[in-house]
């Protein structure tokens, strides 16, 4: 039975990417061993490391005045690295649109004068606040947003991000490479890799060069962007295998037509599912339509009992990891780049069948 994995993260990688990894598992680049077993200072590894950075630059059209860093510690470590590196005047404004942006805000308040300028917590994070209405403070170091809210299934659209003179920082963990973003709109982008880039263990940071080197004195050496930039992210041992997997995945994305093609496919999948849910009296998605995520689709049946039954029976049908996050309940279908259109179609077919049997 074909299994479709709807996990929110770590999440599905394309079969082609896994196949490529399998083929090189016992002999990477003629070394006779796997990439996991060679020095991060070797020529063979260096080629992968640099290709990974070059492919991110190419696929996201990262301008030359930005540094691309391959780090560890997940997006969660960036919740602290961002304020430690970017607070110079000591002030930043946050928009809280979910659990992760709340965590980012809670970490930042330890390091400066940090204000939450808007939150959608009043309606359990089912919408994105209208940021054009917010009067962000003058003289701040940055504004922090979470581009796609993985748990709640909301996302900023290109025309709904804050447009101010302030440096914009975005947690793009669940939308990086899944939809297009104009890097020059941001001073810094960070993303844990395990949703769309690679297995868990890698964090991608894209940061404007003029923002590097102003870190607070207490910033740990390992967390300084300047340390990592100076050393091409090879200050210490990087997560070599994750970076290798990221490179294979980036090659695959390029072959498929780049981020534009990914966005088109992700739009097709999520539109199909949203249309089906909206036309059904049985299933429901509570997110404000204009703020819906392209990759994470939460939904419910008429009761918690049926939700539980749905998750169980879907799993038996090969549609796995559909249980919603505990903060939302119900189900959540995460459909990142690695989810083929057939997976979404299989989910909708199952939903139709389940509805007929249970309404
Ligand atoms: C998953 C996720 C995180 C947490 O990432 P870690 O790499 O596990 O620290 C943070 N932000 C968003 C938007 C996420 O989806």
Q: Can you walk through the features of this model?
A:
By secondary structure, the chain is an alpha/beta fold. Helix content is 34%, strand content 15%. The chain has nine helices and 13 strands. It has a seven-stranded mixed β-sheet with strand order 2-10-9-8-5-3-4, sandwiched between helices. β3, α4 and β4 form a beta-alpha-beta unit. α3 packs parallel to α4 and α7 packs parallel to α9. The chain is globular, with a radius of gyration of 21 Å. The chain starts with a strand and ends with a helix. It binds pyridoxal-5'-phosphate. The site of pyridoxal-5'-phosphate has 12 residues, from α3.
Gyration radius (Cα, Å) is 21 Å
Largest sheet: 7 strands, mixed
The counted number of beta strands is: 13
Number of helical segments with 4 or more residues:
9
Strand order of the largest sheet: 2-10-9-8-5-3-4
Give start-end ranges of low-pLDDT stretches: none
Taking the alpha carbons of the first and last residues, their distance comes to 27 Å
Mean pLDDT across residues: 97
Brief synopsis:
With 359 residues, the chain is of the alpha/beta class. It has helices at 15-23, 43-59, 74-86, 99-108, 225-230, 240-255, 258-278, 304-316, 341-358; strands at 4-5, 66-71, 91-96, 113-119, 142-146, 148-149, 154-155, 168-171, 188-192, 203-208, 296-299, 319-320, 331-334. It is built from nine helices and 13 strands.
Topology:
Layout: E1 4-5, H1 15-23, H2 43-59, E2 66-71, H3 74-86, E3 91-96, H4 99-108, E4 113-119, E5 142-146, E6 148-149, E7 154-155, E8 168-171, E9 188-192, E10 203-208, H5 225-230, H6 240-255, H7 258-278, E11 296-299, H8 304-316, E12 319-320, E13 331-334, H9 341-358
Bound molecules: pyridoxal-5'-phosphate.
Residues 9, 74-76, 100, 146, 150, 171, 173-174, 192, 195 line the site of pyridoxal-5'-phosphate (PLP).
